């Protein structure tokens, strides 16, 4: 079986995380992806925290490798008219073009959507932005911290009234949005295959975030009231809270207070005595006496290590999960069983693991990470020769003029 996107050529004019992550998934599925970087490279190169290496040892830049695995890379100066012309000539050889350039920049380079359809009428054009392609703020730059977490209501809904907003982990909004962009690109390709005509698709950090917290937003649309993070003592149920075991590990519960859930919960924690206490005899009373109940359960769970409780929780069919940190998550047997990690074979540093695409295709042996991310300008020479049939003299002239850079 061939990979599902084999024969599809994608050109990416994008940096940082959201749009490049979407095209990385396409590369995993067999597409040929050409990453166009400005001279000097994508600003995210080397930006994230790196593993310690010895002096002189090659650092593979693991975050960049994850975001850009399996692509070809060229460096091109779009501010130079010759560079913009080369970009248009390369686009003519592609099925999909993906950009996270603001609209004003696309148009300045002659790469607006109308310009692109003049180049190739059946292009699928994927646009990624912070705030979308309509409205007064289409040219406002935005990272996931601002457009995804802050503007959308994600931070607000996760903040206790009067408290400080939380911090997001790097790229969480970007990589959520990359899935939306990937789905949009697949829809665009399907539309092209059916109609023979090109299609513009877009995803934005802001719009994806509204989908992520849609259950809060659909309520606020009706009653006009904000969603917010309840203080623990004002939670709806103790069986929806987290408790810390004696070894410092936390156990998160997600058991609606219905049916025999309260009985199973108490028996799992060796607290059958709670079942006989009048103040905890109904869901309403448990809610009204939440502070007392939480203190009681905190003491019980905190008396033994997490491993003691885990088998009991499963025995009594409780719905729970350990709260892993990232180091624990990458070693979690079930996380690994889902196929969440794949290996990149790097020509210099050897093999190392990265995160796989967020879904599985059954019986698709040719799907997966195809190789490392490109070095700066690694494939400039190859792409210009194979796609545009430029000679060595022409490429040398472009490089000496600051139009391209070869690695």
Describe the protein in words.
The chain is an alpha/beta fold. Helix content is 39%, strand content 14%. A hairpin with a 5-residue loop joins strand 7 (242-244) and strand 8 (250-253). Helix 1 (18-28) packs across helix 8 and helix 6 runs parallel beside helix 9 (205-212). The longest helix is centred in the middle third of the chain and has 24 residues, at 172-195.
In short:
This protein has 407 residues and is α/β, with parallel strands linked by helices. It has helices at residues 18-28, 62-68, 81-91, 103-108, 113-119, 144-150, 154-157, 172-195, 205-212, 214-223, 261-268, 283-288, 290-301, 306-315, 326-329, 333-337, 380-388, 392-400, and strands spanning 9-13, 32-37, 72-76, 96-99, 124-129, 199-204, 242-244, 250-253, 320-322, 341-346, 350-355, 404-405. Strand 7 and strand 8 form a beta hairpin.
